[in-house]
Amino acid sequence: MAEKLFSSADKKAIVDAIKSAEVSTSGEIQVHIESRCKGDVLDRAVVVFDKLKMYQTQDRNGVLFYLAVEDKKFAILGDSGINEAVPDDFWEKIKENMVSRFKAGEFTQGLIEGINEAGTQLGAHFPYQGDSDINELPDEISFGS
């Protein structure tokens, strides 16, 4: 179900947004989508964050966008490096903007806007490091059951 929510063009647009957001930052953004989330969405996002080894970035500046589409739950989880740099309500503000898109059925656009905003903040706090900067995590969307 999770993969079917997004067309091939939607998936490409999301991956393109990730790549674009990462151009100006050493930060890393990943999107994980699954059908169901039993229990607390933040707890599940932490499990996925660990499973995807997002904590292994040099500056601890990974950001996970986690969606459980059938349960209509989502979370944004930043690693310790980015969380120390942004205001306490930063992720909530991005989530609020995304919710309005999601309620309108605009899942792809909501994700893209959230990714763009996260990329802007990552770029402000973790600028691109030139030739020494490598893409530490895959840009492709991961899907769960």
UniProtKB/TrEMBL annotation:
Transmembrane segments: none annotated. Pfam families: TPM_phosphatase. Residues 3-120 form the TPM domain. PANTHER family: BLL7265 PROTEIN, UPF0603 PROTEIN YGCG. This is TLP18.3, Psb32 and MOLO-1 founding protein of phosphatase.
